[in-house]
Specification:
The complex is a heterodimer of chains A (about 350) and B (about 525). Chain A has about 350 residues and is an alpha+beta fold. In chain A, about 35% of the residues lie in helices and about 15% in strands. Chain A has 7 helices and 10 strands. In chain A, a hairpin with a 2-residue loop joins strand 1 and strand 2. Chain A is elongated and about 90 Å long. The two termini of chain A are about 40 Å apart. Chain B has a domain of about 230 residues: Cytochrome C Oxidase, Chain A. Chain B has 16 helices and no strands. In chain B, helix 7 runs antiparallel to helix 8 and helix 9 runs parallel beside helix 11. Chain B is globular and about 65 Å long. Classes of the chains: A alpha+beta (about 350), B mainly alpha (about 525). At the A-B interface, helix 1, helix 2, helix 3, helix 4 and strand 7 of A face helix 4, helix 7, helix 8, helix 10 and helix 11 of B.
């Protein structure tokens, strides 16, 4: 936060320049320049996190590339504007050159140059999209289902059967009530902590299959560069591979307005070494057996009790191709819409 | 109904008509108004009222976000505020104010006696107070106002109670009003230009509005269709967007944004027109590359129809569609760049003076460009996954809408107010309004870039503590910006009541061009009864 405050001061101490815009732009630059001093795997408070996956690092690099191109253009364009504002003032006796009304040549130049700049940005961007969409050869798949207002994580592959809900932690939930009297600053990881985080192994390509039981949600962990909507009737795909050695807790939030408690359904991912992950899976399976739970599909101990979805809600059974409009038809014909969508 | 007669006789006017040339008195003047100036004034006053209502909602939002924790409102009510703020500002403040400016200025700029369809003009205005009464009264019904975001995405929107019907009916009314306004603009421009004024001689404000009007006619019915499907899904058991019934919630997003993206340009193209009028005046130099400015507006309008997917990158989209929407979106930067460069070239080697309209236009030029840069960044799909649905997006569209569209409207009001009232306004107060607005708008919105990049989602009533500092700065900016707008009202009221008389040209010493400056200030109730000749 110290960095943050410094740039506030920086901005307010720059009275020169045409308007607040210029001063603020300088502040933005200062803020971005100070990135080096920030921790490597979290946001420094005013820029994208570099993150802990290959994807998030590529996103960050592309973000900075585009940002600096924009800064370059801004310097030229705002420079020309400010020069005009200073140089061609009537109060300084400037005489207008009313013959300067048109020039096909310069207009072609300033049409072509932006096109070239855009191509320069678009090529690496298209490359990165290809990488982002390549969900092949994943080593662990987890079905993520959004509910108002919690996440359900159902593991497949090696961890098949592990299935639980993840809800805002109790202390945050208490503190966030209207006029709770609790200072959020006294709550650890206020609004960004859950009762039971998703656990994944590092160095492993993890694929999420996202859907929703009610309204549209979006699952987002900035440090993974991973955000995708969870939409009823659809299964969206998303992948990430956390670099080995970057084990730890990573936090995010639901990113799509999903009703009253949209602000209170955090995403927390606990990244462990593959060995620790295996141990965790064993524990979960043991707990499952102990509880005498049938098989996959029912919440394990430690998760929140959940009302079963209303009859006719889109079943969360894994539908086919990801990203395709795989609207799932219910068993018993179209139900009365008003209740279903509740 | 005295001036039905006037409207008819205005064409084959004679000076003996002059005793009719007075507005009706009292409430009838406004209820039965067919005069483009009266209707324009009503539109502008209405949008100013809505600006303050929407602004009050923004103040509630920023007050709640002043520090972490919930201190003032329930999260459900907070969502109602964000939703209603957007609906009121877009459909109540920005769009009607542009229609108001069109009503006032298009007949004056093309040398017509009035709008082509005065009665429809009356109707299109008077629908609006009803539409907004319905929309705003939903705040007081059980379940409250719409709270699913102004984009009305199902299934969330359909979880609502009474507001579903109220909001949809209000949107239908607003759409009908906009379409009528647009038809009026097109018919007026196509049929009522003074002899000799061919399309390329037409002022840029009229040009920008002509293109905007076509956009409105093209997309408002699409919005109407989308919300009608919501209505039948909610009340009549259809399943257009209900996955359980075989419907598709993402289809709504496609239909909505096919309306929504052109809608964004509906709110900025007339602003381009305004800036293209004001910069040359106070640079004392003709607009640089006027023809390419028109082509640029037309290209932006065309592109607006093929970029809607960029609102939905995180919702899952085929690879080819992602690349296509990225490219088409980036392409918009080219004609927009041409506009910014041409405006800069207009000032280059000019003779600049800094009256209030010019100050707002310059602020537009800088701050809209910043909104353009964040727009280019948002277009880059792979990184958009990080920006999407965060405060970075909020910062982006507020930069293009507030110091963009709203500042252009304020510039237009300061530019033409003396023509409307016949009085000069207080330059000192107007400049104070400018400086306070420009400083606070940046304090308000610039930190939101940082918040978004640092990971704060939009539309949340409470946030993790690492976002505290910038939220506090932003809220302070919001209160400052909100309070500064009171000055705007003071300037307008003072000016309407009296003041130093304005000359016909108003901006003596500058070079205002256009027919509106050839008639006296205030513009007579019926102007151009005889069409002026354009060389």
């Amino acid at each position: 936060m110290r960095v943050t405050r410094a740039s506030v001061d920086h901005r307010t101490s720059r009275p020169r320049g045409f308007s607040g815009a210029v001063a603020l732009f300088a502040a933005a630059l200062a803020a971005f320049c100070s990135i080096e001093t920030a921790a490597a795997n979290t946001s420094n408070g005013h820029n994208l996190p570099i993150g802990v996956t290959d994807l998030s690092q590529s996103m960050y690099a592309l973000h900075m590339e585009v940002f600096w191109i924009c800064v370059g253009i801004a310097v030229v364009v705002f420079g020309a504007m400010i020069y005009s504002l200073v140089k061609f003032r009537r109060s300084q006796g400037a005489v207008p050159d009313t013959t300067m009304v048109h020039s096909t040549k310069v207009e072609i130049i300033w049409t072509i140059i932006p096109v070239i700049i855009l191509v320069v940005m678009a090529v690496p961007a298209a490359d990165l999209i290809l990488k982002q969409e390549d969900t092949r050869n994943s080593e662990l798949s987890i079905r993520v289902t959004g509910y108002q207002w919690k996440w359900q994580y159902q593991y497949m592959d090696a961890a098949d059967g592990v299935d639980f809900f993840s809800t805002l932690k109790q202390d945050s939930n208490f503190a966030r009530q209207l006029n709770s009297g609790v200072d959020p600053k006294t709550v650890t990881n206020y609004l960004l902590d859950v009762d039971k985080p998703m656990v994944i192994p590092s160095g492993t390509k993890v694929r999420l299959l996202l859907t929703s039981m009610d309204v549209i949600h979006a699952w987002w962990v900035p440090d993974f560069g991973a955000k995708r909507s969870a939409i009823p009737g659809f299964v969206n795909e998303l992948w990430f591979k956390v670099d080995a050695g970057k084990e730890g807790i990573y936090r995010g939030q639901c990113a799509a307005l999903c009703g009253r408690d949209h602000g209170f359904m955090p995403v927390v991912v606990d990244v462990r070494t593959p060995d620790d992950f295996k141990k965790w899976v064993e524990e979960q399976k043991a707990a499952l057996k102990q509880a005498g739970a049938p098989a996959a599909g029912s919440p394990v101990a430690g998760s929140q009790a959940v009302t079963p979805p209303a009859a006719g809600s889109p079943p969360a059974a894994a539908p086919p191709a990801a990203g395709s409009p795989a609207a799932v038809a219910p068993a018993g014909g179209p139900p009365p819409s008003a209740q279903v969508l509740n | 109904m005295a001036h039905d007669h006037d409207a008819h006789t205005a064409h084959n006017q004679d000076h003996h008509d002059d005793h009719h040339d007075q507005p009706a008195t009292g409430i009838k003047r406004w209820l039965f108004a067919t005069n483009h100036k009266d209707i324009g004034t009503m539109y502008l006053v209405f949008s100013l009222v809505m600006f303050f209502i929407g602004g009050a909602m923004a103040m509630i939002i920023r007050a709640e976000l002043f520090k972490p924790g919930l201190q003032l409102v329930d999260p459900g009510f907070f969502n109602q505020m964000t939703t209603m703020h957007a609906l009121v500002m877009i459909f109540g403040a920005v769009m009607p104010s542009f229609v108001g400016l069109a009503n006032w200025m298009i007949p004056l700029q093309v040398g017509a006696p009035d709008m082509a369809l005065p009665r429809m003009n009356n109707f299109s205005f008077w629908i609006l107070p009803f539409a907004f009464t319905i929309l705003l009264s939903s705040l007081f019904v059980p379940g409250g106002a719409p709270a699913g975001g102004w984009t009305m995405y199902p299934p969330l929107f359909l979880q609502g109670g009474n507001y579903v019907a109220m909001a949809i009916f209000a949107v239908h009314l607003m759409g009908a009003s906009s379409i009528m306004g647009a038809i009026n603009v097109i018919v007026t421009i196509m049929n009522m230009r003074a002899p000799g004024m061919n399309l390329l001689k037409m002022p840029l404000f009229c040009w920008s509005w002509l293109i905007t009007a076509y956009l409105l006619i093209a997309v408002m019915p699409v919005l109407a269709g989308a919300v009608t499907m919501l209505l039948t899904d909610h009340y009549f058991g259809t399943s257009f967007f209900n996955a359980a019934g075989g419907g598709d919630p993402v289809m709504f997003e496609h239909v909505f944004w096919f309306f929504g993206h052109p809608e964004v340009y509906i709110m900025i193209l007339p602003a381009f027109g305004i800036i293209s009028e004001i910069l040359p005046t106070f640079s004392r130099k003709p607009l640089f590359g006027a023809t390419s400015m028109i082509y640029a507006i037309a290209s932006i309008a065309f592109l607006s129809f093929i970029v809607w997917g960029h609102h939905m990158f995180v919702d899952g989209m085929p690879l080819a569609a992602q690349v296509f929407f990225m490219m088409s979106t980036m392409l918009i930067a080219v004609p927009t760049g041409v506009k910014v460069f041409n405006w800069t070239a207009t000032m280059w080697r000019g003779s600049l003076s800094f009256e209030p309209p010019m100050l707002f236009a310059l602020s537009f030029l800088f701050l809209f460009t910043i909104g353009g840069f964040s727009g280019v960044m948002l277009a880059i799909v792979p990184v958009d996954f990080q920006y999407n649905q965060t405060y970075f997006v909020v910062a982006h569209f507020h930069y293009v809408l507030v110091p963009g569209a709203v500042f252009a409207i304020m510039a237009a009001v300061y530019y033409w107010l003396p023509k409307w009232t016949g009085n000069m306004y207080s330059m000192g107060l107007a400049k104070a309004h400018f400086w306070l607005s420009t400083i606070f708008v940046n304090v308000l919105f610039f930190p939101q870039h940082f918040l978004g990049l640092a990971g704060m989602p939009r539309r949340i009533p409470d946030y993790a503590v690492q976002f505290s500092d910038w939220n506090m700065v932003s809220s302070i900016g919001a209160f400052g910006f909100g309070l500064s707008q009171i000055l705007f009202v003071v300037v307008i009221i003072q000016c309407a009541r009296g003041g130093k008389k304005a000359s016909a040209e108003v901006w003596d010493g500058a070079t205002p061009t256009g027919l509106e400056w050839t008639i006296p200030s205030p513009a007579p109730y019926h102007s151009f009864a005889v069409a002026p000749e354009i060389k």
